């Protein structure tokens, strides 16, 4: 029989409860409403009158709440202490740990990702943010979305989802993945046209991808959308000026976590030990272009996987004649 530690609760989509990986059948709509309210207030005692009002409105049937609580305990094998569904004072409390509830897991993962981004370590931010995004299975509270009590909670959970997406985009931009995030940014800006923070990230992504006109247009679109609501964004206006003058502050710079600057060479080393320049060099342009493409691949740089190797045979022809190749 599963114990309380094997229970997992999911509200980021349709309500799901599993015990040791096996889905738990909760029952009808009223029982799902009860479980959802307790999960949204996990760790807090929800007063019985509040539960009855949410489930039945003004005329709750007698003893019906106790029946639903008993059935939930039965299907979760929660009929013996220590219980996860407790009676506390004049209310009921769901005593689940944060790692057992998907929304709480997302909050912890988001905090972890934010700390990494704030510490200029976007590489370490990606994994927790990816995990957080994977926990969404659809609109939050999907089973009870039509209930008035759910509206505020659903809006807060949707805001949480947006915060995760914003933090993930910030990490990707720090890693030089400008082109990769443009599609997600377009979608998010379409959904949240008055969010000037999202608009700024899209402008920066366009600019760093060499699409200056798209960046300027994104600024204009954002200012126009805000103007329609009687709002303004000094930040977007300054950003528009920076785009038009090609401000260096918009350019990408590798975060500290991608590596330390090379240390100065000790005295007597370095350029003094290099061989003399070749008097003649043939075919430099092609290999130079290929080397530049490899060594400026920002995604590979972020993973720390860039390797350039040269192979060839010494003394088999004049410089640049094809003895050496980029591997």
UniProtKB/TrEMBL annotation:
Q: Which CDD domains match?
A: BTAD
Per the record, the domain of life is: Bacteria
Question: Which residue ranges carry the DNA-binding annotation?
Answer: 1-96
Which InterPro entries does the entry link to?
AfsR-DnrI-RedD_regulator (IPR051677), BTAD (IPR005158), OmpR/PhoB-type_DNA-bd (IPR001867), Sig_transdc_resp-reg_C-effctor (IPR016032), TPR-like_helical_dom_sf (IPR011990), WH-like_DNA-bd_sf (IPR036388)
Specify whether Transcription regulation is a keyword of the entry.
Answer: yes
Task: Give the UniProt keywords, A-Z.
Answer: DNA-binding, Transcription, Transcription regulation
Q: One GO biological process from the UniProt record?
A: phosphorelay signal transduction system
Q: Where is this region: Disordered?
A: 250-282
Query: What Gene3D superfamilies does the record tag this protein with?
Result: Tetratricopeptide repeat domain, Winged helix-like DNA-binding domain superfamily/Winged helix DNA-binding domain
Enumerate the spans annotated as OmpR/PhoB-type domain. 1-96
**Record GO terms (molecular function):** DNA binding
The keyword Transcription regulation appears for this protein: yes
Which family is annotated?
Belongs to the AfsR/DnrI/RedD regulatory family.
What is this protein identified as? AfsR/SARP family transcriptional regulator
Species in which this protein is naturally found: Candidatus Frankia alpina
